[in-house]
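Write out the 3D structure for:
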Amino acid sequence: MQAGSRPGDRLAAIVIYLILILTAIVVIYPLYWVVLGALNPGSSLFRTSILPTGLTLDHFRELFTETDYLLWYRNTLFVAVMNMILSTVLVVTAAYAFSQFRFPGRRQTLMAMLVLQIFPSFMGMIAIYILLLQLNLLDNLWGLILVYAGGSIPYGAWLVKGYFDAQPRSLVEAAKIDGASNFTIFRKVMMPLSVPILTFVAVNNFIGPWMDFIFARLVLRSSSKYTLAIGLFNMVTGRSNTDFTKFAAGALLVAIPVTLLFLLLQKYIIEGLKAGANKG
């Protein structure tokens, strides 16, 4: 039986490796062209050849000297970091309340949060616009942060709640017997046990605003408040804006913070993904 099954196993392994190689090519090939576009002279990607020739760093220099790229970068970093902090706090506290306490309307609220995840977020764009207009938060980075933070609660709270529910109840009961308050239990018992899922939620809440274009375009109006997505988009829209190579250079720099986050927190992110899949 074992000898007869070996050719089939080898064939399956070959197919898996072929699929992985094709997937890697599909992913790497566009990225390779972006890198070449950022390093090749000129402003058109059509002049970019598959083999690099005459590479230059002029496009990166022009980003910092001829555009407001640093301002866009600062705005985006501010929005992403503040949203990461605010969203994580809101998600974790909401998840802890739904997991550990029983109160009127709890089940209905959880179901409402679950139903809200069915609808695309941009369906509420008109309502969000009117609400921010009434609160005088249009063209304001804090208005954008509040939109992101509020939108992250339904999915994040359900995910973290499932993780909290899976923790041993004996730990909480033992802490209560020792006289610990709910806040002490939350801070000293639940938080240390939940580092992987909290890291996963925090990284997701950072990446969302960092990559988002739709809501940033809706809320922000003045160029001094632009995020990277809007600023780079304006480089390649309109008849007079054809700086595709400069756009490619800016796109490469956009990837730096997200890449560093994944490299530094890879262990916790993977554990958080497994925890969400098994316990959520």
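The chain has a mean pLDDT of 83.
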